[in-house]
Amino acid sequence: MNFETTKNFASQLDNNDSLAHFRDKFWIPTLNSISKNTNSSNEKGKEKVVYFCGNSLGLQPKTTKAYIEQELEDWKNLGVEGHFHGKNPWLSYHKLLTNQTAKIVGAKPIEVVVMNNLTVNLHLLMVSFYRPNQKRFKILMEGGAFPSDQYAIESQVKFHGFSPDDAIVEMMPRKNENSEGEETLRTEDILKKIEELGDELALVMFGGVNYYTGQFFDLEKITQAAHKVGATAGFDLAHAAGNVPLKLHDWKVDFATWCSYKYLNSGAGGTSGVFINEKYADDDSLPRFAGWWGHDEKDRFKMKKGFIPMRGAEGWQLSNAQILPMAVHKASLDIFEEAGFENLRQKSEQLTVYMEFLIENFNKEQSKIKIKIITPKNKLERGCQLSLVFDKEGKKYHETLTKRGVISDWREPNVIRIAPIPLYNSFMDCYRFYEILKEIAV
Ligand SMILES: *Cc1c(COP(=O)(O)O)cnc(C)c1O
């Protein structure tokens, strides 16, 4: 499609958007509420912000409150009986999330469960899937991974008595002869590195979409390459789940985990999901840290000795389900279901291409600032996020953007991340960002 840089054109795109009405299902903050400027006579302040931070914390669905209230009511009226006689009995509450979760990550229901928080799950999964020996002990990860992943991996390596310097291999982008670096990784380089590491490689542990650059890695090829050398492939999908199409089962990924509060709009510190490939569903030989909720549900309450795991991902559960965070998650999953992930992805691609087009035009139309987009241009290699590097004073421009009602985030050392989210961002949001950029570039 040929885009235009007019406001009219942005409206037209919104008018033609069959998902546009989903925006009304979310609470979108106003400038007043965000800047604590409670002067409600300030008309400008009542405008909704341009919220481009759904990659960090998704917005609240208007239905969320009712989902929580349902569980509070059952607790109020039924007490412990809510486990059995609540509208959504708590005993099996987590199962309410399974089918929708499986769809979002491209899994079979037996392969997923919602539980705990992301970093906790990373550890639990590494307990089972990082089992180094003297010969095969290395972990390959992307350089500049999210710090929690770095700490988790480093501590796992040490836990097994290895030194992080020997055991952790970080993939960095290429540099040319003039030491000018590329911004993102080339798939061919990742595959080559896996082959090189060969029988020393125990685990490939990558983010699905890198939080800083927005690069979506080729998880299928990475998994294939890992398996070819006898290693395991696991992914942190914090920035991928609900953002990019995933087919974890078909890609034969061994394990994955993600959080629910970014693209999945399930509230700060919200619950997490895990994927464990079906081939491990009955594999009792895998070491795991066990708890009663992973025990065979038929005799979970017999309170007997001897752990017998549930089949599949549920066998990795430790504790009884966190009902309130899960209720919040359910509200959002129901919206995803209603919108249909393929429709969302289609709009997402268009939104991001449009945003990119506006930024490229901004660069042409003025000479004060040049914005470089370091996220891959190929739509197969990215989700909705664009990572922007300003040629000067990026941090200052980020602050100005915030004051003007564009909520994006600044990530050290020099990136502004913007993520137009197909569920609640409009084409007009992108256009407003472009207009504001032009106004502040003086
Ligand atoms: C957001 C994010 C986290 C955060 O971990 P929590 O355990 O949910 O606090 C970890 N890893 C990655 C890659 C993330 O993007």
Describe the overall structure.
The structure is a single chain. By secondary structure, this protein is α/β, with parallel strands linked by helices. The protein has two domains: 7-48 and 341-440, Aspartate Aminotransferase, domain 1; 68-338, 3-Layer(aba) Sandwich (Aspartate Aminotransferase, domain 2), CATH 3.40.640. It is 36% helix and 12% strand. A seven-stranded mixed β-sheet has the order 2-8-7-6-5-3-4, with helices on both faces. A four-stranded antiparallel β-sheet has the order 9-10-13-12, covered by helices on one side. The chain has a two-stranded parallel ribbon with strand order 1-11. Helix 1 (7-15) runs antiparallel to helix 14 (427-440) and helix 3 (64-78) packs antiparallel against helix 11. The model has no long low-confidence stretch (mean pLDDT 96). The structure holds pyridoxal-5'-phosphate. Pyridoxal-5'-phosphate binds at residues 117-119, 146, 148-149, 207, 211, 236, 238-239, 259. Pyridoxal-5'-phosphate is lined by residues 117-119, 146, 148-149, 207, 211, 236, 238-239, 259. Pathway: Amino-acid degradation; L-kynurenine degradation; L-alanine and anthranilate from L-kynurenine: step 1/1; Cofactor biosynthesis; NAD(+) biosynthesis; quinolinate from L-kynurenine: step 2/3. Homodimer.
